[in-house]
Structure prediction request, 633 residues.
Amino acid sequence: MFELLGAGLANLMQVKYLVPLALGTLAGIVGGALPGVTITMTIIVVLPFTFGLDPLQGLAAMTGVYVGGSAGGLVTAVLLGIPGTPSAIATTFDGHPMARNGEPGRAVWLGIWASVFGGMLGGVFLIGATGPLAAFALQFGPWEFFSLFVLALSMVAGLVESSVLKGLLSGALGLVVTILGSDPVMGRERLTLGVPFLEGGVPFLPVLIGVFAFAQIMSEVERAGGVERAAQGAQRALSLAASHVKVLWEIVSRPFLVLWASFIGVLIGVLPAIGGSAANMMAYDQAKKFSRRPEKFGTGIPEGVIASEAANNANVGGSLVTIMAFGIPGDAVTAVMLGALTIHGIQSGPLFILQNAQLAYGIFAAYLIAHLLMVVILAVGARWMLRVVTVPKAALFPAVLVLCTVGAYALNNTMANVYILLTFGLLGYAMVKTGFPLAPFILGVILGDQIEINLIRAIMTDADPWLFLTRPISGLLIAASVASVVFALWQHRRQQRRLAQRADGDADF
Amino acid sequence: MVPIGPGFYPRIVLGVTAVLAAALVIADSLASKRRAPPRGASDYGLVASMFALFGLYAGALSFLGFRLSTLLYVAAANALLAPPRSARGWARVALVALLTTVVVYLAFERYLLVLLPRGRWTGF
Prediction:
């Protein structure tokens, strides 16, 4: 394993890999720092640029975006109090007060170094756990895979903030998209309505790009002026000088906090589709609970910044594990990476790390090196990062949509993909407006064919449907998926009741 | 062996979807009518125009070609999102559109080996 990792690191040091990785990391940092541009949108924009590259170059660039994006959000979060991405929300709680108290350099560097520590701990898990988990998944039969995918889907549907029912329905609608076109087992056409380009089914990348890009951009367009106003006051020149020794000591002297926050980050990363925005909030919350001075949280203490930033970078490592060991994307970012693999004809799933060891260890190496590049880029550029916020959205959004169009078109050089992009863009925006979560829908679209193939394979092997429950691993996974939905319903009910109580309390006044 | 054809799985999926949709309709009609107050004003007209403009762009691509339609789309979308008030503003819109088009075109066609759509009418 260490030999392979060493080879991967040496491989990545070549200019042809280092350049895309550095550019990806830079793009991630800039995209992460821009309020209103998420890491998902950044990776969607980067995607078409990777079509002409070899698989490892493309995936290195994407890994860079992911790592850079998780750290880029902290600059705007600390200096302006606006989280550049949802994964930096908790960083604003203590980072911004610390910067306002006259220590912007300390706050920014605490965040950066905490990201590195969290990221590296996530990396240890990524490199150590992917192989064994994939080996474990290799013993799975079609029953287990079916149940695993159902578990992933029901967990995502249940973990959304809005209604559980809408989450489940959204996932089911994603599955409906995949039944269009020829069926994956026998190749017979279904529900194509005679439209020729539906014969091959709906390709998932244009769907994903359309749903996420339009939902995000149109929600910003709708709040016209809101983003532009936030950028005011960003022009001030700031000195970000800080003693690195002191900052590093502040982190190293709190090993329990760093470990716990990273553990939460990794755990949430492994679970499908909750993502960095949950990781940083939960780690911050935990840090507060375990602290001896919880009342100081929110006033600008280092613990808050460390917890949030360590967690959101560790989260990246966790999500990469799920995609590399099982082929299940943990969030929209890894879903795009999965798409990039498919474009190059690489089969994801438990065989990935065995069949493509060089590529897999290349991704591990890219993940580790991206953290170093991130420190370098931020050391040089953090001061200018605030200028980035002043880029007018009116010029940015059309350019992003053009790149989305190129991305969809260039997948297989057909205009049909651009029409799919627009159609699902409309759907994505409509879903956001009506409170349907996007994550379960996308996961449904991605897993749909695999769910069907494994279901049919299982039944063809043995007609007994009870096998899904009586095979131990499969049964356990199904039980877990039922439990996750029940838990989500219970939690949602409790939250509703609490909200109702609070509303009643307010009404008394 | 059980007779399962291409319709087996779609029936399950559509059935589950129908049940969930029905459950949502019932749950919503049983829920109290309390609605969250609308937060801030939303500019839906602008959203609709942006979608329409993108639709025109998608349609124009195969007739005008990538370069021409992208130039027009970026300029129009930019002007729609932030209407320029002076000649300088219009010049900036034109410059942004030109730069976006040229940079994207060169990056993809020259360096990344991605061929972009040519126009049926313009051959360009």
Summary: The CA atoms of residues 20 and 26 of chain B lie 10 Å apart. The longest helix of chain B spans residues 87-111. DSSP finds four helices and no strands in chain B.
